[in-house]
């Protein structure tokens, strides 16, 4: 799974900490998601979708090994 | 009540039990209990005389309770990633604990026979040794996983 959370976050001028607070997780969790070390749950993905005002598919993509 | 409702009720209850976590304050309490138990063990071993077997047993139980409190307390910032890491640490501790319980008696038997040049009887591990090892592995692996998240 690949994602462009970092880009979406930059568009909204949010730090990892800001984003973490907005969706109720820790900064380290945002860091892990951005680094593709952790695939978030559907609930978290939908929270991000609501915040970025974009469908989940726009910032999460399946990679070849998925 | 029909079968489906009973199943739903049981599933809910099981989820509640398996997802049960104490507030983060209990981590500190667990840390204090563990620390006190370790200190008590040292004092009993090096500075006390007479029949203090009850104190040894008390310290052992205290150590287990303290580590259990630390293990089932919520993280300061509990979220889905920390929950996942905790589950991973429990799985790891369980597997390592079983392997330890299987292998360690033979290692102890071998080492004690080499050191005491034979004659040592084979004995299995006690519950305290296995449980404290499993809790220690769980706490350490959870801490390590969190550090590398």
Description:
With 66 residues, chain A is mostly helical. Chain A has helices spanning 5-11, 16-23, 27-34, 42-52, 56-59; strands spanning 2-3, 60-61. Chain A has a two-stranded antiparallel sheet. The N and C termini of chain A lie close together (7 Å). Chain B has two domains: 1-74, no CATH class; 76-149, no CATH class. Chain A binds chain B through residues 24-26, 28-29, 31-32, 37-38, 40-41, 43-44, and chain B through 77, 79-82, 84, 146, 149.
Write the layout of secondary structure elements.
The complex is a heterodimer of chains A (66) and B (149).
Chain A: E1 2-3, H1 5-11, H2 16-23, H3 27-34, H4 42-52, H5 56-59, E2 60-61
Antiparallel strand pairs in A: 1-2
Helix pairs in contact in A: 2-3
Chain B: H1 3-18, H2 25-47, H3 53-71, H4 80-115, H5 127-147
Q: Summarize this, please?
A:
The complex is a heterodimer of chains A (66) and B (149). With 66 residues, chain A is mainly α.
- The succession of helices and strands of chain A, N to C, reads EHHHHHE
**How much of the polypeptide of chain B forms β-strand, as a percent range?**
under 5%
Helix content of chain A: 55-70%
Mass-distribution shape of chain A: globular
What is the rounded distance between the termini of chain A? 7 Å
Give the radius of gyration of chain A: 11 Å
How far is the N terminus from the C terminus of chain B? 45 Å
**String of helices and strands of chain B:** HHHHH
The largest sheet of chain A, given as strand count, sense and whether it forms a barrel, is: 2 strands, antiparallel
Helicity range of chain B: over 70%
Quaternary state reads heterodimer
Greatest interface (CB-CB under 8 A), with counts per chain: A-B, 13 and 8 residues
Number of helices, counting only DSSP H or I runs of 4 residues or more of chain A: 5
Q: Which outline of chain B best applies?
A: globular
């Amino acid at each position: 799974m690949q994602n462009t959370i970092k880009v979406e976050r930059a568009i909204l001028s949010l730090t990892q900490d800001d984003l973490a607070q907005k969706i109720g997780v820790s900064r380290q969790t945002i860091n892990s998601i951005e680094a593709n070390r952790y695939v978030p749950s559907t609930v978290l993905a939908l929270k991000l979708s609501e915040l970025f005002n974009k469908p989940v598919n726009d910032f999460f993509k399946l990679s070849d090994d998925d | 009540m029909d079968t489906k409702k009973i199943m739903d009720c049981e599933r809910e209850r099981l989820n509640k039990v398996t997802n049960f976590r104490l507030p983060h304050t209990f981590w500190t309490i667990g840390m204090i209990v563990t620390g006190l138990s370790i200190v008590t063990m040292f004092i009993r071993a090096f500075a006390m005389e007479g029949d203090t077997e009850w104190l040894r047993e008390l310290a052992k139980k205290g150590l287990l309770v303290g580590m259990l409190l630390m293990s089932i307390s919520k993280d300061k910032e509990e979220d889905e990633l920390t929950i996942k890491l905790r589950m991973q640490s429990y799985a790891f501790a369980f597997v390592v604990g079983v392997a330890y319980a299987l292998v360690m008696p033979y290692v102890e038997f071998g080492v004690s026979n080499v050191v005491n040049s034979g004659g040592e009887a084979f004995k299995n591990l006690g519950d305290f040794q296995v449980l404290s090892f499993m809790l220690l592995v769980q706490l350490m692996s959870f801490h390590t996983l969190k550090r590398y998240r």
